[in-house]
Design brief:
mainly alpha; 11 helices; 71% helix; elongated
Length: 241
Amino acid sequence: MNTTVLTTLAATGFTVAFFHAALPTHWLPFVLVARARGWRKGKTMWVAVAAGLGHVALTSLLGLVVAWLGFALDDHFGELFKWIAGGLLLAVGAYFGVQQLRGAGLRHHHLPGSQHHANEECGHEATESHLEHELRESPVVADTSSDWAAISGLLVMLTLSPCEAFLPVYLSGVDFGWTGFFVLSAILAAGTLGGMTLFTWLTLRGLERFDLKRIERYEAALLAVVFSVLGLMMLFIDHGH
């Protein structure tokens, strides 16, 4: 096994997971709901971690399907598989590149019950005021009967919105078998939970303003570069399996 290639894949996967988790949709709702309901910082952090674990669990489950299909294709096509996988990764990179050039942005999660029009471009201009507007319309804040409604709403929001951008990373790790799958799943968890808890904690501590709109605005471009690099690695680097 070429550990250098696996380390590179892990670092790339962490970049995808962390910067995806840095988007305000992954941490700002917890802060706003906590303020609306008067939650303590500790409770807010635990809810954020629980939602993050659900987010990671569903993404890993989908990644398991991707990995299993990759193993089957690898067994069937042999050496040809790296060209198939590499071509798919390059196609994914091209898709994100086109999305960036079009200014279409990427779709991200919204709070259950909020009114979001289909022609809005999710993730392109997600700001605090936009999320606050959604929160005011959402039962997560509107229903004051119990905290469970708010907690379950936040859990559903993240758990049922997996990190689709990470799934192609699993495909790039097929040559490393189940070791690659578990390493990438651990990296997904570290990047996602690290990003979510870091920015939730910083905001709760009073550091209100983050210049993260630039990250969100150019997320598609970042993913285009990442998956193009992964595709070229699949095509031209000997994974040593």
